[in-house]
Amino acid sequence: MRPSDDVTPHARIPADVDTPDKIVYGLTARQLAILAVAGLLGVGIVRAAGDLLPQPVLFAALTPLAGAAIVLALGRRDGLPMDVWLLAALRHIRDPRRLAPAAAGRPAVVPGWAPATATPARAVPMLHLPATAISDAGVVDTGPHAVALVACTTVNIGLRTGEEQAALIGGYGRWLNSLAGPVQIVVAAQRVDLAGHALRVADQAETITDPALAEAALDYAGFLDELAARRDPLWRTVTVAVTAAGERGRDIEVLRRAEHAAASLAALGAQTAVLDGGRAAAVLACATDPYTPADVTWARSLPDTAITGPGA
Prior knowledge:
With 312 residues, the chain is of the alpha+beta class. It has 8 helices and 12 strands. Strand 8 (140-141) and strand 9 form a beta hairpin.
């Protein structure tokens, strides 16, 4: 039990920081614009056909317009305003269904290994990804911003005293208040690639000179293989993406901000590390395909790195 003089931490975290400002009658500027356009259309219909149509027919014609305007202005779907959701649905319907990755431009012809498609060769759409390059230092180029990734663990404060919880929350709040640019914190659950880890352990066991230690490593690899066959383990990953904008020195600045974030979170008890290019590529590769068992603890080759093998 905690002592009676223990301090219970309290922290206000606003959940509506991205909510647009209300202009009048609790409506935003976007909602007022939609209702104003609908009102002008209604006034135009009344002036054009008010003397030609009976009032019941005129009301019947204006009711769908008013209902559509209200739903469009006040409705929401999947957390988005209805007009934004409908615009995204329209873009989705009009966009092509086949996308092909390309570094720059569109190829004149479809490569021979590509599957047959009814789409003309010169009309193959390209798949444009947000990240265009990853440097060896781990800086991800997204065009207007440079992004650096920081991997960190969680901190369990449930068993700490109230004063300790208040100190940790205060430290986390000071880091948030020190941010000079947008930051994204991604908490995800991913499958653990136990089979790949067991294979690496078995490979390392062959290099161990002590027979007993090598046998223990092989037993451990066998245990991981058996566990992978019987279970589908998950692990929680926390990734902090810090950004920096500008045309000059932004790569150095984003790495400085990443180091500052790693140091600030490490002071709270979390294990942190700024990811280099190979590990950043591994994190992004696993994020694009979260349902495939993959291990982000070993680095990948960068997209522009030439991979060679033994000669035929």
